[in-house]
């Protein structure tokens, strides 16, 4: 059987399960998300000035970027779990996330004097950021990979990596409620590294968990 014929056959075989893939994904993510919130409450908790920080555009921007990444990653990973599904639109949507982040960085460079750039980039909690985001993301990554087993991804490593982007983005959104570093420069550096670590773990795990 040719590869194209095999993909079409797999698509037909999984048509019923694929229709409920998003539902299964959401159902399994909720417990992972609740566990991540519990870990957050036990370890860090929200920053003391959370209520007043909501009025700060830089603080809000952290959630805009992380939640946008989570949404776009979810849309793409659902397509990756379906053999032969087109995903150009979802991939293009995901590509908008670094563009939004870059725009925020450029606005920060314009608004902040050059001597303060390094301080905003390094921040106060880089190590905490690198440790916390993967910790909060882990329950959601496990849940996402288990949910995606209902599909039939032809690129399990890539699918696992995108699932890692999704989980890392949600983990970053949770951590952002504690993080005192609101500069887009800090987000572009340290949040990106932490989320990339989760994506790398997802890629490695996906090659094993999602293979068929």
Overall mean confidence score, pLDDT: 90
**Gyration radius, in Å:** 18 Å
> Counting H and I runs of at least 4 residues, what is the number of helices?
10
Give the amount of beta strand, in percent.
under 5%
Sheet with the most strands, sense and barrel status: none
What would the principal axes of the Cα set say about the shape? Answer: globular
Task: Please bin the fraction of helical residues.
Answer: over 70%
DSSP summary, beta strand count: 0
Order of helices and strands: HHHHHHHHHH
State the low-pLDDT regions, or none: 5-16
Spatial separation of the terminal alpha carbons: 17 Å
Class computed from helices, strands and strand pairing: mainly alpha
Give a short summary of the structure.
With 212 residues, the protein is mainly alpha-helical. The protein has helices at residues 3-13, 15-19, 21-43, 50-53, 57-80, 88-111, 117-122, 126-148, 156-176, 184-209. Helices cover 79% and strands 0% of the residues.
Structural commentary:
It contains 10 helices and no strands. The chain has 212 residues and is mostly helical. The model is unreliable at 5-16 (pLDDT under 50).
């Amino acid at each position: 059987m040719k590869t194209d014929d095999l993909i079409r056959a797999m698509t037909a075989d999984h048509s019923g399960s694929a229709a409920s893939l998003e539902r299964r994904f959401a159902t399994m993510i909720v417990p992972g998300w609740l566990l991540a919130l519990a870990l957050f409450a036990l370890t860090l908790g929200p920053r003391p000035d959370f209520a007043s920080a909501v009025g700060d555009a830089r603080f809000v921007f952290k959630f805009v970027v992380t939640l946008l990444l989570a949404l776009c990653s979810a849309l793409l990973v659902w397509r990756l779990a379906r053999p032969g599904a087109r995903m150009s639109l979802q991939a293009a949507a995901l590509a908008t996330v670094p563009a939004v982040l870059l725009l925020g960085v450029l606005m920060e460079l314009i608004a902040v004097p050059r001597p303060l750039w390094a301080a905003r980039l390094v921040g106060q909690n880089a190590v905490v950021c690198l440790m916390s985001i993967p910790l909060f993301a882990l329950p959601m990554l496990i849940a996402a990979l288990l949910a995606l087993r209902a599909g039939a991804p032809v690129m399990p490593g890539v699918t696992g990596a995108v699932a890692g982007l999704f989980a890392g983005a949600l983990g970053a959104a949770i951590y952002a409620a504690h993080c005192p570093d609101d500069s887009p420069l800090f987000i572009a550096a340290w949040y990106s590294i932490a989320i990339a670590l989760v994506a790398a773990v997802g890629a490695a795990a996906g090659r094993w968990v999602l293979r068929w």
